[in-house]
Amino acid sequence: MKASDICVGDWVNYSILNLKAKVFSVLGNHTIGIQFVDKNNKVEAIHGLLEEAINPIPLTEEILVKNGFKKESQTIDGDYCKYTLSGFVLNWCDTDGFWYQNGDITPNHVHTLQHLLRLCGVEKELII
After folding, report:
1. Structure confidence by residue, pLDDT tens digits, 5-56
2. Where are the beta strands (DSSP E) in the chain?
3. CB atoms near residue 52 (< 10 Å)
4. Is the pTM of this model over 0.90?
5. Fewer CB near the last or first residue (10 Å), C or N of the chain?
6. 12 three-class SS
């Protein structure tokens, strides 16, 4: 994942040397590194950033529900659902994953959902 793909406030995993990944929110993105804050508000700066060590966090139903999205089943067998938050609707299908509107945008990672919410004017700080 490229450092240029993430913005301040995005949640990402950072793992180096096959150590357990840490979940971070980006505080600053600079050419020499990134400053992160973890879930316990501990600040870390990573200089000489290795882009291959930054990984997206997969978007899951658990994360959506934890952040106030309401699930509404659309089919009898539940293979198609929609999740709503403040008028924002995110669709899900068991074969295609998540999509917004007519399938134009597929926010299958937390940071892409964060970007989409910002673009749609929904002010929501996601909790991981």
Report:
1. 888 888 888 776 666 667 777 776 655 566 677 677 777 666 665 677 788 9
2. 11-14, 22-30, 33-38, 43-47, 54-55, 70-73, 80-85, 88-93, 97-99
3. 10
4. no
5. C
6. strand
Residue 66's H or E segment, with its range, is: helix 61-66
The C-alpha atoms of residue 36 and residue 46 are separated, in whole angstroms, by 8
Q: Is residue 90 a contact partner of residue 83, using CB atoms and an 8 Å limit? A: yes
Tokens matching residue 48: 């000489």
User: What domains lie within the chain, and their CATH numbers?
Assistant: 3-55 (2.30.30), 61-119 (no CATH)
Report the distance separating Cα 83 and Cα 39, nearest Å: 25
Buried b (16+ CB within 10 A) or exposed e, 91-115: bbeeeeebbbeeeeeebebbbbbbb
CB 83 within 8 A of CB 37: no
